[in-house]
Amino acid sequence: MSEAERRLTVIVSADVAGYSHLMEVDESGTVSRMKALIEEVIRPVIAAHHGRLLKLLGDGFLAEFPSVRGAVQGMLEMQANVESSESGAQGEKPIHFRVGVTAGDIIIEDDDIYGRAINVASRIQGLAEPGAVFISEAARSQLGNLEGVAYQSLGAHSVKNIREPVRVYRVAAADGGTNAVTRWRRHAFLDPKSMRFQTIVVLLAAGAVFAWRSLPEPDLTPPAEQPSVPSAAQPASGPAPAAKPAAVQEASIAVLPFTDMSAAGDQEYFSDGIAEELLNLLVRVKGLRVAARTSSFAFKGRNEDIRDIGKLLGVSTVVEGSVRKAGDKLRITAQLINVADGYHLWSQSFTRELTDIFAIQDEIANAVVAALKENLLGEELAAPPETITSRVPNMEAWDLYLLGRHHFHQRTVESLGKAAELFQRAIALDPNYAPAYTGLADSAMLLSGYGGLSLDDAIVRAQPAIEKALQLDPKLGEAYASLGLLEDGYLGDKAAGLKAFRRAIDLNPGYPMAHMWLGNLYSKNGQIRDAVQSYTRAHLLDPLHPTIATNLIGMHIATGEYAKGGAVADKLLAAGVTSPIIYRALENLEDTFGHYDKGIRWGHEAEKAAPGQPATMLALSNSYGGLGDFDAAERWLAAAEKVAPENFQAFGQRFGLLFTLGDFDGLLAHVDRRLKQVEGGDPSSVVYRSFRAFAATARMIIGRYAEGVEMFDGVLRPDGTTGFGIQADFQILGALVYAYQKLGRAAEAKKHLATIERLGNDARNQGFDGPAWLPGEAVGMVLGGKPQAAVKNLQAAYAAGWRDYYTLATAPVFEGLRERDDVKALLARMKADLEVMRARVDAMNYPGPEV
After folding, report:
1. pTM for this predicted structure
2. Which helix (H) or strand (E) covers residue 229, if one does?
3. Average pLDDT of 74-88?
4. Helix 494-507 vs helix 477-485: angle between axes, to the nearest 10 degrees?
5. Are 253 and 319 in contact (CB under 8 A)?
6. Which H helix or E strand runs over 574?
7. Do residues 138 and 124 lie in contact, with contact meaning Cβ atoms separated by under 8 Å?
8. DSSP-assigned states of every residue in 604-673
């Protein structure tokens, strides 16, 4: 055995994204193309940059370079050459490499190599998206500022078999390049949905409060699937990209919507309800993972192969069927299909009187479980713990409940109002049916989020309905999830909300909304890693749910994990899931990166898909405001206010527009009117303290500092925070520090600045990074007397996509920076960028609101 050699070097690990799928589709063609790329692209590039190909791995390679500079330049060149080579592959899925680069020790012994550097490079490569080059902190520290290369911090990641977290950076051609990463970002337009993290002292004190929705309350549940519309992410002229299948778990099932076979074809809500109730029964089977309704019902009316549906949803079996309802007679046919081969494991028809519907559903559920035990899963799968007949109302009430859920799933202001009406009617017929009360509460809270109900009215309607549901059924997990949403999102009691969500998940671990709403709680509290975990679990249960996906994307991008966020969105778009929520999410994300023209394009797609929705109008108002087209921003805002005059988000955006236009009398009248409306209520409530914070901030930003500071009494809690969430804490405390500094009250300013710094450090440790975070961090630096550091942050934000010109140009907190030549240059670049985008938007001649 030869003596082992240890040395420092630079290691590159690369593999082909989706290699198994490529081989499955065309094994010989994939092998042939790989060989050609290795000989014609990879070997020449490595040699040209003085590297050495260490090992071919079938789906990738290991290479060694004498310098980080050579490795990075070589891999960027390789990615561009691979893309160019693969761009001409007609009818074939292009090959894209994922690349990881690090510097460190390797050991060479008996013609083999191993060591920590190889492990780290491999793990970093596993984090990279197709077409990207990711590097470690060790490589970044040696690279310096390489001309022509842009860097983006993606935060620290815990990876398998590496003890310490690995900090990762994306590198790309500074001119945007043409590699797959740039193309994805250009066409998919992804950015953090809810993490536009500029501070109130920037956004409110600046007047650029079109971004007041810095942390908008996320849409709570998805809308009905809308017809597919062309988008930049999925051009109308080409085929949709192949959807990446979810990981299949053996003990897993999806229930597809049953087909309405009635003569008139008017019983769709009833056939949907049959499938949904069956799904709800199977959710209660211990050991069985059930794809949620949103995902399984996304295939309604689509002629898809069951095997493809199963793979996309990550399940091993699928139930489908049909319902024929004629008078008092009912015929249900159901079958259980194995996804792996498409064969039927079980099939049966049931003909009964309509009054026997619940017994039929129990029979189907038990037959499905028996078939799973016999054919796939074995005896470890438990039987359903309860039957539908143990928890149903009278037939007419149940029919109204199904119709209510049908409207509930449409997710528009109108449909949610109709759903609430139907749930009320169901309750009138059967006051002891707990799920109807939960539906009523959820409808009220969603109506508030979608702009059809005020926060106060939502609480008044939801709270007693939830209490009644829990009184009737103390083991109804959905009711505890609704309680958690109410406590956390509306009453501001995070501890009570957390307790309720955990109870909901304990009772019904397969309910995705409980996991998503818990993720929202963690997100607002700055517990990003916990939020990602909850959203990921919800996404696994409901992989095609637009709102769950949007929240998960927001978390990934807030922490700098753009590849993961992009993969989530790509999956939904590839599966044909199109909805106003997705378009609005893309609009918000695009705005955060400063591509307002593209954000406006997505907003108009949302408006076409579901016209007249307040959420879409407000999103468009925000995008036009960021672009500087205040006339258009006013038109869309006024349209939203006409439809939903008491909407909280509309209130915030009106606040910003009034200040931007210099209408200070109107601004004070605006905030004081709403504050007066809530006076006399509970002064500790979220609603009262929120409007008081607005009124206080309004006074501060127009120079009435003492009055504003005094009004903050009752907004902050004893621990110095608001309890609204870490983002709001950071924003409001920034405004307060600024006011105290203007008043010369150094001790108070120092006290709140210390809280900001503590919150900022906590947020950094949680992984906050990127264009949405850096400007807010810069405000803290200015307030702390670190102008040079603030300018560097703003420049980094611009490099990452930040284009909030009006914030930097008008915010009082930045007044001292605006005299600097480097900041003047930055403002000039931002203004020029906005002018280019404004010209593009003007050329598109988009229609205005119809309301």
Report:
1. 0.60
2. none
3. 87
4. 160
5. yes
6. helix 562-574
7. no
8. HHHHHHSTT-HHHHHHHHHHHHHHT-HHHHHHHHHHHHHH-TT-HHHHHHHHHHHHHTT-HHHHHHHHHH
